[in-house]
Design a protein that fits this description.
Layout lengths: L7 H8 L2 H13 L4 H10 L3 H11 L2 H17 L3 H17 L3 H17 L3 H17 L7 H38 L5 H11 L2 H4 L7 H17 L3 H17 L1 H6 L1 H17 L3 H15 L7 H21 L3 H17 L6 H17 L3 H13 L7 H17 L3 H17 L5 H18 L6 H14 L14 H10 L3 H8 L7
Helix pairs in contact: 2-5, 6-7, 6-8, 7-8, 8-9, 9-12, 10-12, 12-13, 13-15, 15-16, 15-17, 16-17, 17-18, 17-19, 18-19, 19-20, 19-21, 20-21, 21-22, 21-23, 22-23, 23-24, 24-25
Length: 507
C-alpha cells in the first residue's frame, strides 16, 4: 500500500481533531506503539514532504494508518450505539460458547432494549436469533411454549419494521436525487409530478409508518417536495414535526444527526425565501448553538453546519445591502475552502461560488462575479445543481454584457437556446432574458446611442411573464426585474435590492 504517494495518510492525520490526537497518543502509550512512528505522526502534521521521504525509506506508513483507524474506532466506541451493541453481541457469542447462559441472557436483554431504542432492527433480529438459541437449551428456566411463539411474533414485527424503513429510505433517495437535479418546479407538469408523489401510499397514508425512523424520513420527503413546489408553509410544518419528533427521542438525534442538521438548515432557507430575515438570523444562531453539541462533533457534520451558516449569512447580507459584512463572509468561506478543500462537496462549492458571484454582481463588481460564475460553469458534473448551472450561464451573459465582451454573447446565447430546447422544463423568464440580451448586445455592436427602449420593453415583458407564480421562483436565483430597473433608473442594484427587503430585517 503506497499511502504517502496519494496523500491518504497525510489527509487522515490532518483531519484529526485535537481530542482525537490526544486519545491516539494515549492509546499508543498504553499499547507500546513504536515511538518512532509517533514521532513520524508528529512531524507529519507540520512537514508532510519530509515525512514522505522517511516513509519511502522505512515503509511503515500502513502500520501507522491502521493504528490511527483502530484508535478512532476506540475513541468513538463508547458514544456510538452500533459499536457498543456489536461488541456486546460478540460477548454474548463468547459466553454462549462457554455455556454461561445466565450471563448471556443478562447482556442479551439489555442490548435488545438498546437496539430497539435506536431502532437498529438488524441488531434486534440478530439478538432474537441468539435468544431463540438460548430458549432451546434453557430447560432449567422452565421456558414455556408461549415464550417461543411470542418471540416468533416479535421477529415478524421487526422484519415488517425493517422492510418498511427500507422502503422509506429508498423513496427518500429517489426524491433527493431528482431534487438535486431539478430543484424548483418550473411548469404545471412539474407540479403535477410532485402532487402524484405526495399522493403515493407511503406519503399519503400515515398508517403505513411502522417506526420513528420511517416517520422522520416521511416528514423529510414531504418537506423536500413542498420545497420544490414552493409551498413554504407546508414545508415548514413538516420540518417542525420532524424536529419535534427527534427532540422527543434524543436517541434518534444520535442515530440521524445529519437529518437533524439538514432540517435546521431547511428552516433557515424557508425564512430566507420568505424574506423573514430576523427569523433567519435567529435560526442561524440556533443551528450554531445546536451544532456545538456532542452529537454533532464529527468533521462531516461540523462542515455541514459551517457551510449552511456561511451561505445563509452571505445571501442575507447581500440582500440587505451590507457589502462589508458580505465581503467578510466571503473571506471566511475562502478560509474554509482552503482548509477543507477535499472535504467540502462539489455541490456546496457550486452554491458558494454562485452566491459569491451574485453578491459581486449586486454590488457592481462584474469582473469578480464572472470569475466565480466561470468556476460554477467549469465544474465537471453538468447534472449537479442543474438549476444553479442554468442560471449561471444566463448570468454569464449579463456579466459579459456589462464588461462589453459583446462578440461572445451571440455564441453563448445560441448555445443556451439549444440547451433550453433540450431541457424537459425551464422558466419562460430564461428564454425572455436570452432574447433581450441578444437585442442589447446587437445594439451595442451597432454603436447605437440608447438602450432605454429595449430595457423598457424588457421590463414590460418581465412584468407580464411574472404574473405566472411559477416564474417568480426566478428571483431566488437572480433579481432580474431589479437589474432591469437599475438600468432604467440609474440606481445601483444593491440599493434597489436592499430597499425591496428593508422590512424583511424586522420579521
Amino acid at each position: 500500500m503506497n499511502l504517502i504517494s496519494n496523500k491518504d495518510l497525510y489527509d487522515l492525520v490532518k483531519s484529526l481533531t485535537k481530542s482525537e490526537k490526544r486519545f491516539l497518543k494515549l492509546n499508543a502509550a498504553a499499547n507500546n506503539f513504536p515511538d518512532h512512528l509517533i514521532e513520524f505522526f508528529n512531524v507529519l502534521e507540520k512537514e508532510p514532504d519530509f515525512v514522505a521521504e522517511l516513509f519511502k525509506k522505512k515503509n511503515e506508513a500502513e502500520e501507522l494508518y491502521t493504528f490511527i483507524l483502530k484508535s478512532l474506532r476506540l475513541f468513538y466506541a463508547e458514544n456510538n450505539a452500533s459499536f457498543v451493541i456489536k461488541d456486546e453481541i460478540t460477548n454474548v457469542l463468547n459466553l454462549f460458547d462457554k455455556a454461561q447462559y445466565k450471563q448471556c441472557r443478562k447482556i442479551l436483554n439489555k442490548q435488545k432494549q438498546e437496539a430497539y431504542l435506536y431502532e437498529r432492527f438488524h441488531f434486534v433480529l440478530e439478538l432474537i436469533s441468539l435468544e431463540k438459541q438460548l430458549i432451546s437449551i434453557e430447560t432449567q428456566f422452565n421456558i414455556s411454549q408461549n415464550t417461543l411463539e411470542n418471540l416468533i411474533k416479535e421477529e415478524e414485527d421487526v422484519i415488517k419494521k425493517a422492510k418498511n424503513l427500507g422502503e422509506y429510505t429508498l423513496l427518500f433517495s429517489r426524491i433527493n436525487l431528482n431534487t438535486r437535479q431539478k430543484n424548483k418546479a418550473k411548469t404545471q407538469e412539474d407540479l403535477d409530478t410532485i402532487a402524484s408523489i405526495l399522493n403515493s401510499p407511503l406519503l399519503k397514508n400515515e398508517k403505513l409508518i411502522y417506526s420513528s425512523k420511517s416517520r422522520i424520513i416521511y416528514h423529510h420527503c414531504r418537506s423536500i417536495l413542498f420545497c420544490r413546489c414552493q409551498d413554504n408553509q407546508s414545508r415548514e410544518v413538516e420540518c417542525q414535526l420532524l424536529l419535534d419528533l427527534m427532540d422527543k427521542e434524543p436517541a434518534l438525534i444520535e442515530e440521524m444527526p445529519n437529518r437533524y442538521i439538514t432540517t435546521l438548515n431547511n428552516l433557515i432557507n424557508i425564512a430566507f425565501e420568505e424574506r423573514k430575515f430576523k427569523t433567519c438570523l435567529k435560526r442561524i444562531e440556533d443551528l450554531q448553538l445546536k451544532s456545538d453539541k456532542k452529537a454533532f462533533n464529527t468533521t462531516d457534520l461540523q462542515l455541514k453546519s459551517i457551510t449552511s451558516v456561511l451561505n445563509a449569512k452571505l445571501s442575507l447580507y447581500t440582500n440587505l445591502g451590507k457589502q462589508k459584512d458580505a465581503e467578510n463572509v466571503v473571506k471566511e468561506i475562502e478560509v474554509i475552502l482552503n482548509q477543507y478543500e477535499d472535504k467540502i462537496s462539489n455541490e456546496d462549492k457550486i452554491v458558494f461560488d454562485y452566491n459569491i458571484a451574485i453578491m459581486n454582481t449586486y454590488f457592481g463588481n462584474y469582473k469578480k462575479a464572472q470569475t466565480y460564475i466561470t468556476r460554477v460553469l467549469n465544474q465537471g458534473n453538468k447534472l449537479l445543481r442543474e438549476d444553479l448551472q442554468s442560471f449561471a450561464r444566463i448570468l454569464n451573459i449579463g456579466l459579459n454584457y456589462e464588461l462589453n465582451n459583446l462578440k461572445q454573447i451571440s455564441y453563448i446565447i445560441l448555445t443556451l437556446k439549444e440547451n433550453l430546447k433540450n431541457q424537459i422544463s425551464h422558466f419562460k423568464t430564461e428564454t425572455l432574458i436570452l432574447t433581450y440580451f441578444e437585442k442589447l448586445a446587437n445594439l451595442k455592436l451597432q454603436k447605437a446611442s440608447s438602450e432605454k427602449e429595449i430595457f423598457e420593453s424588457f421590463q414590460k415583458d418581465l412584468k407580464e411573464v411574472m404574473k405566472d407564480p411559477h416564474e417568480t421562483n426566478v428571483n431566488f436565483y437572480f433579481e432580474i426585474e431589479l437589474y432591469v430597473q437599475s438600468k432604467l433608473s440609474g440606481i445601483s442594484m444593491h440599493k434597489l435590492v436592499s430597499e425591496k427587503y428593508k422590512q424583511a430585517s424586522l420579521v
